[in-house]
Amino acid sequence: MSVNKIAIIGGGAAGFFAAISAKEHSPSSEVIIFEKTSKLLAKVKVSGGGRCNVTHACFQSPELAKFYPRGGKQLRKAFDEFNTHDTVDWFESRGVELKVEEDNRMFPTTNDSQTIIDCLMSETKKLGVRIALSTAVLQIEKLTSGFDLTLKTGVETFDKVIVASGGSPKTEGFEWLRALGHEIISPVPSLFTFNMPKEPIKELMGLSVPNASVRVQGTKLVQSGPLLITHWGMSGPAILKTSAWGARTLSDMGYHFIAHVNWLGEVKENDLRQTIDGVISEFGKRMLRNKNPFDMPQRLWEHLLEKVGLSLEKLWSELGKKGINKLVNILLNDEYSVAGKTTFKEEFVTCGGVSLSNVDFKTMESRVCPGLHFAGEVLDVDGVTGGFNFQAAWTTGFIAGRASV
Length: 405
Prior knowledge:
The chain is an alpha+beta fold and about 400 residues long. The chain has two domains: about 5-190 and about 350-405, FAD/NAD(P)-binding domain (3-Layer(bba) Sandwich), CATH 3.50.50; about 190-345, no CATH class. About 30% of the residues lie in helices and about 25% in strands. It contains 13 helices and 22 strands. The chain has helices at about 15-25, 40-50, 60-65, 70-80, 85-90, 115-125, 175-180, 235-245, 245-250, 270-285, 300-305, 320-330, 390-405; strands spanning about 5-10, 30-35, 55, 100, 105-110, 130, 140, 145-150, 155-160, 160-165, 185-190, 190-195, 210-215, 220-230, 235, 255-260, 335-340, 340-345, 350-355, 360, 365, 370-375. β13 (about 210-215) and β14 (about 220-230) form a beta hairpin. About 40% of the residues are buried.
């Protein structure tokens, strides 16, 4: 009886998890990971500022699926096979303890991504998964039974192939999969920060507010969360979520648009006016500078007052109707001109890739090329920031590996 040979294309999170899953479900299979670069698990290394945001503490599949601008519907069923509970159990049963942070992101208790890398490397070694570094797969040819993979060293034949090659910034990066009959959704960046080259607020870089709401003028895009001012513009979850949900829309706009910021999050105008009236009656003799009644850094408060021409020395009681209107407008509907984007740290995430209609999410098998399976960001699946892209990698990798044996 011949040995089942499985090729995994890509040495990232999804590729490793697929290889481990395949070998665990069929120890007699020969499993090889082909990585075109000299580095393995590169994204795992840099994720979460080098701490590796393994997953997110959302344990209900329907809720978890809502964090994916693309692929949520398909992942909801996939999470029934392998979800956040399973991820936590998987790592903890292998000696890697995870912790939940205030924002529900989950990290190893060591705060070091190397812990996750060591665990995955150790598991592949223990199971006997082979790894071929600096080995690009140049072509895949579908045979009557199995596949021929063209490598620099020659052609190798495999029974099954799992593609976990990650996203690509350009459509050309998916041509080899299009050649096998797959529909490719053109890729655009999905997690990025907003560049504001002409906006003076950049001088406040490093300041953040705990809950702001961001709206893109002329669209239905609205997202809330912490917002960070950077030396090029704005970042933080509120911005990153906007970029993820609006990936295609913002690409179509050429990344030039007006962003409206509500610095107080979900606060509505009537409630704010009542708050201001209360401050005036209680602290009317205080200067605006000396009485900042909102949950924002003092330097940002002063910057916003100056932006609308309200003197820092003005007393609250001297605001008048015009002054109150200016204050309400700047706090709830501040405007910023965005011109360009910056990729979020080293974590390049795209929307786009292999069309979800081409894949059976029960097995992650291609509907147009039987025997070929997919895992991770090579698919038109992406999550917002917070550990969701890794969870999709673990889930799809697990299912693809199990189904390939």
